[in-house]
């Protein structure tokens, strides 16, 4: 069978500033929470490898953009590091950063690769974190100012903007499950942080639209479809709906519909965990929804009704309302320990079509993390990552089906282009089309999947 995608479909990959650029002494970058946390607690990071050892994009971006061409990219997403552009979070703009991001954007355009720019990818400037980060209402204003500066500097050439990448992750990592700084467990704070992120996104969208630039703005959400263990068991179904409210609809509904899901609001009210909301906020959120949506999809969430009384923390937690469930016959990524469920992408897109006005969207991240990829190197030094080709192809097949049924899907981005540094996991899981030899000045080698992707992009589909 031939899988053909709509004309002008976006093929490419996504990355982020903090995971690829490297720190580089002397370029005036300020610290963000990762630089700080690594200095404080290096043992929290896989093999104690910190954020200064990223994939050398800061110096190798021209070579990388050529490799993007070689691997069939027509589009590429990265993020502007807030602490590189504005080292203290507010105030002075770092001209070295302006020059760097201008060069990256110009080089992409000169090579017919459309730049997609994201503003926040987990990288709070440390100066703002010292005052509370997303907990502090003033961070919302600082972020909107940062966004405005980015639109002014780069908005003449960048036509696709995103306010946040996976905003639920700093909430989960920083305030619930301890894998981001400040590494706390406090649901009240988690809710306030989430609320401020939602508000900051709406405010940045408002500023962008008021500037009348020729482009569009959205948000990138990691959607994890929540499947009940047993569809015919109302308790399982209810538990799955609550997990969906906490982890998907908490951001999806305000971003696309301009309102928070009532089941989540009712629950938070019941346990006295509503955030502090100022006058006019809800109107701002209502009136400034996204033009398009990026969907990151890696794995589903399997849920069953609460069986144990075990508590994760002293106070309330989302996990008080459901238990995670391991489906016995699930297909697994044996290298990363995540379930592979390709149909999940179809279910997400169908839900967006049926319940979210068929919002214009694209798959903004999808990919397969592998530990120990060096075991797949052939005699020519190329990684034969057939598992990744199969993974991407299977997901594309389900995306194609959703498109055939009317879903408004504009493109596909793999996570990621070059192997990169992934927060506390550092270089544990490799995701790229292109291998990066960290010990050898970041030497790049295109993997088998990169060559395969070029063919798919050129043909705008596959057999
Ligand atoms: C995505 C994030 O959720 O997952 C990326 O947007 C991250 O920033 C990627 O690198 C892979 O994560 P991990 O933990 O498997 O390395």
TrEMBL record:
This protein is called Aryl-phospho-beta-glucosidase
The GO terms describing molecular function are: beta-glucosidase activity
Q: Which family does it belong to?
A: Belongs to the glycosyl hydrolase 1 family.
Q: Which species is this record about?
A: Carnobacterium alterfunditum
Q: Which InterPro entries match?
A: GH, Glyco_hydro_1, Glyco_hydro_1_AS
Q: Which GO terms describe its cellular component?
A: cytosol
Keyword match Transcription:
no
UniProt-annotated catalytic positions:
365
Task: List UniProt keywords, sorted A-Z.
Answer: Glycosidase, Hydrolase
Q: Does the keyword Hydrolase apply?
A: yes
What processes does the entry annotate via GO biological process terms?
carbohydrate catabolic process
Q: Which Gene3D superfamilies match?
A: Glycosidases (3.20.20.80)
Stored SUPFAM superfamilies: (Trans)glycosidases
- Tell me where the signal peptide lies: none
């Amino acid at each position: 069978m031939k899988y053909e995608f709509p004309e002008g479909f976006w093929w490419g990959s996504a990355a982020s500033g903090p995971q690829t650029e490297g720190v580089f002494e002397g370029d005036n970058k300020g610290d963000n929470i990762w630089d700080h946390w690594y200095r404080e607690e290096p043992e929290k990071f896989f093999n104690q490898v910190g954020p200064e050892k990223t994939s050398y994009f800061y110096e190798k971006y021209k070579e990388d953009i050529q490799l993007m061409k070689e691997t069939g990219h027509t589009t590429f997403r990265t993020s502007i590091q807030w602490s590189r552009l504005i080292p203290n979070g507010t105030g002075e703009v770092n001209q070295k950063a302006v020059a760097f991001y201008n060069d990256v954007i110009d080089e992409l355009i000169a090579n017919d690769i459309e730049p997609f720019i994201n503003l926040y990818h987990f990288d709070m400037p440390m100066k703002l974190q010292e005052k509370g980060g997303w907990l502090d209402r003033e961070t919302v204003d600082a972020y909107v100012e940062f966004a405005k500066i980015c639109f002014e500097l780069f908005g003449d050439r960048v036509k696709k903007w995103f306010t946040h990448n996976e905003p639920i992750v700093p909430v989960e990592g920083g305030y619930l499950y301890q894998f981001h700084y400040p590494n706390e467990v406090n649901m009240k704070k988690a809710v306030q942080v989430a609320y401020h992120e939602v508000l900051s996104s709406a405010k940045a969208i408002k500023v962008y639209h008021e500037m009348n630039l020729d482009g569009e703005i959205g948000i990138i959400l990691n959607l994890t479809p929540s499947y009940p263990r047993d569809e015919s068991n109302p308790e399982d179904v209810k538990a799955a709906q609550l997990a969906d409210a906490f982890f998907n609809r908490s951001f999806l509904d305000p971003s696309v519909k301009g309102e928070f899901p009532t089941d989540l609001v009712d629950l938070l009210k019941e346990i006295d965990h509503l955030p502090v909301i100022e006058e006019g906020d809800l109107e701002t959120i209502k009136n400034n929804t996204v033009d398009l949506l990026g969907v990151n999809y890696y794995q589903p969430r399997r849920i069953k009704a609460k069986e144990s009384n075990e508590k994760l923390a002293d106070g309330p937690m989302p996990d008080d309302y459901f238990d995670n469930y391991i489906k016995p016959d699930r297909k697994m990524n044996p290298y990363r320990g995540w379930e592979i469920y390709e149909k999940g992408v179809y279910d997400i897109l169908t839900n967006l079509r049926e319940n979210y006005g068929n919002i214009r969207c694209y798959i903004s991240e999808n990919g397969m993390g592998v530990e120990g990829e060096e075991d797949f190197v052939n005699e020519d030094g190329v990684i034969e990552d057939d598992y990744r080709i199969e993974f991407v192809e299977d997901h594309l097949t389900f995306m194609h089906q959703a498109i055939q049924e009317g879903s408004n899907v504009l493109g596909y981005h793999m996570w990621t282009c070059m192997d990169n540094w992934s927060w506390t996991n550092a270089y544990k899981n490799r995701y790229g089309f292109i291998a990066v030899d960290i010990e050898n000045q970041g030497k790049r080698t295109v993997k088998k999947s990169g060559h395969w992707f070029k063919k798919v992009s050129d043909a705008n589909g596959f057999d």
